[in-house]
Each structure stands twice: as C-alpha cells, then as structure tokens.
Amino acid sequence: MVYAFRGTTEDEKTYAYVLQGLEPSSRYLLKFNDHSSPDRTVTGYELMRRGLKVTLPVTNSSELIFLSTEGAAAQ
Q: Model's pTM, two decimal places?
C-alpha cells in the first residue's frame, strides 16, 4: 500500500514515488481507493525505475493506492 499526501505547496500537484523490493518482471495491479487515477496494471520494473506517479490537484488531500500482483486477491 502507498499512502500519498499533498500538503499546501501550490506547485507540487504530481509526485513520483519510486518503489523498492518488487519483482521487476511481475505485473502489479494498482487500485486507487479515492479514484484520483483509474486503476491500472504496471510492471515492477516500471514502478522501481519511473515510479508511481500520483496527481492530487487539491491541497491537503490524499490517496491510498493498493498494490497486488496480477492474479492475486486485492487487499
């Protein structure tokens, strides 16, 4: 799970969270609990290299992103 929070800084609407410890060749289902982005599937390689980009347009807002390997039951 990733908990993304945006504070009050105006120019920080998007942030890339570079994750660690994933299997590069595995595919991960990302479920955005508060629907800031559509759910999607990406590789561990992409999450560890490019990061998980989260955009929160409203200050003092947050998002929970649940990760599960493709084919596994979602948390």
A: 0.84
